[in-house]
Hints:
Layout: E1 7-11, E2 18-22, H1 42-53, H2 67-77, H3 83-101, E3 108-112, H4 118-126, E4 132-136, H5 140-153, E5 158-159, E6 181-185, H6 195-209, E7 214-220, H7 225-231, H8 238-253, E8 263-270, E9 275-282, E10 286-290, E11 293-297, E12 302-309, H9 313-321, E13 325-332, E14 338-345, H10 348-358
Parallel strand pairs: 3-4, 3-6, 4-5, 6-7
Antiparallel strand pairs: 1-2, 7-14, 8-9, 9-12, 10-11, 13-14
This protein binds S-adenosyl-L-homocysteine and N,N-dimethyl-L-histidine.
S-adenosyl-L-homocysteine binds near residues 65, 70, 139 and 165.
Amino acid sequence: MKNLGSSVSIRNGVDGMSKSVPRELVRSRQSDRAVEPIGLDAEFAADVIAGLSANEKALAPKYFYDAAGSDLFEAICLTPEYYPTRTETALLKQIALEIAADIPNRAALVEFGSGASAKTRVILDAAPQIAAYVPIDVSQDALEKASGGLSLDYPQLLVAPVAEDFNGVIKLPAAVQGRVKVGFFPGSTIGNLTQDEAVRLLCSARRLLGDDAQFIIGADLVKDEATLVAAYNDAQGVTARFNKNLLIRINRELDGDFDVDAFDHLAIWNAEQSRIEMHLVSRRDQIVNAAKHTFAFRRGERLHTENSRKFTTDSFAHLVAQAGWSVNRQWISAAPHFAVFSLRPESSRRFRHEQQENWKPCKPNR
Ligand code: SAH
Ligand code: AVI
């Protein structure tokens, strides 16, 4: 990631004072490693090389979110077909006071994949007792924009952004240690994770947030195929641009030579896996160079760029139970149905028992 040499105003640190913080201080510890002279990001390069060399080509959806990708996601949210954002926002507005009633004084709100932090404002407005906010996001641009805006609009709030991959090991800023934590994971971003990734994230959130936490998660629900497919195939083509922006990012950051027009956007419903899949489909046989490697695409070959799993209330409860959480409350919107769940940690005793009986993902992975 580039150091843009400018600053962002955030309330930060132990004293909670508002200060101007150099952009590079809010960047990821992972990306703090030396940037190679030609601007290659080593992790991105390694994942592109592995993903494009595989028999079934695939890349992790977190790579969508450079500055342009984050803006395109916000544009998707405004399309008439993409119902999840407006549906979840309306539902959160309806239930915000119920959520707020369970949030203690001086609590810290910790958001996973915070993006523009727009839904956060609904919670903050209903729960002024929240004293600190930790947005976690891989998109440094989105994080800086959102943190700056929140600091201006909520001057009493301590904002301590963390530019990290939430699938990795997260450390919370010292300023929120000792506070009751409320986890917030809206947008159905949990649906973009594999089953294993989701269980691992929920396990690490269980440890990170503590025994007295609650965890508010938004998840999209299974519905008729036409509504689902239309949401990922908007008529204006914004989702197609979002999907293809991944190739533009590879060209820019990994010295690639993708011809973006030689790929088609494809979004399909996989009923067996209960997920929308996004792919980029090669329009012809072609050779592409990127990250100092060469990749062959056959005509019709797919690059799998995203899964967006859709849940039932049962499948969601089953998922979170594997990671030591139980559903305390749930709210479901009118059609098209979207759910917000409030989770509580399972009692430590039972959780420890389940870990011993069934499993592994919740054991500390370091
Ligand atoms: N929560 C917002 C944004 C959802 S878009 C909403 O509900 O509208 C998904 C967000 O998650 C993006 O901002 C993206 O940058 C972030 N994200 C995706 N994968 C991530 C990962 N592995 N680690 C951290 N952030 C991630
Ligand atoms: C962020 N995430 C939940 C979105 C989704 O619906 O899976 C990303 C997205 N992909 C295409 N459109 C929106």
